[in-house]
Structures are given as C-alpha cells and as structure tokens.
Design brief:
By secondary structure, this protein is of the alpha+beta class. It contains two helices and five strands, in the order ββββαβα.
C-alpha cells in the first residue's frame, strides 16, 4: 500500500511487487466545520477484483481521513453497479442527493 499527496490532492495505491493492482484519487475538501474527503476515482484491475484489495484500499482512505481530521468521505457511483454494492459493503450509506449537470456550450 502506498500513499502520496499534496495539501488537497491525495493518491492511494496498492501493488504486489512492481505490479499496480489499484489506485484511488482523492480530494481533501475544506468545509464549514469539518473538512471531508471526496473520492474522484477508485480502480482495482479486473483480475484482482473480489480478492480484498478494494477493501484494503478503501480502509486506507478511511484511516487517512481520520488522520486529517475529516468527518466523512463522499463519493459517487451508479446504483445497482458492482461498485455500488462494494461501497455499501464497506461502510458507505446512501444519502438523498441530486446531481446536476451543466453542459459547456
């Protein structure tokens, strides 16, 4: 497991030897009260899925969130996709939200 980051951007990775198995790109978002982490990308290579690597990676993000004094982690996924079930299994809960999209003309 490895970690690198700047003040607001964080990168987590998991590898076996020189072979990268997965990465997570995360932003530290300042907020009124307490900051939170927002997962922008979370990827585990297809051959390594369902072997516990994703859980190790997400647990590393939770640990870093605690170290940074964050009170939560926010991410988006599609309902009923495998990623949706993965996040629910790993401690995330659905919140009522509306996602808006603005097309650049």
């Amino acid at each position: 497991m490895s970690y690198c980051g700047s003040d607001s951007r964080k990168c987590f990775g998991i590898a076996e030897g020189d072979h990268i198995i997965g990465i997570a790109l995360v932003l530290l978002v300042p907020s009124i009260g307490t900051s939170y982490l927002r997962v922008e990308d979370f990827c585990i290579e297809l051959e390594s899925q369902r072997k516990g690597y994703g859980t190790l990676l997400i647990n590393s993000i939770f640990k870093k969130a605690l170290e940074l004094g964050c009170d939560s982690i926010l991410l988006g996924t599609q309902k009923n996709f495998p990623s949706h079930r993965f996040y629910l299994k790993n401690g995330f809960v659905e919140v009522e939200s509306i996602l808006l999209y603005g097309k650049i003309k």
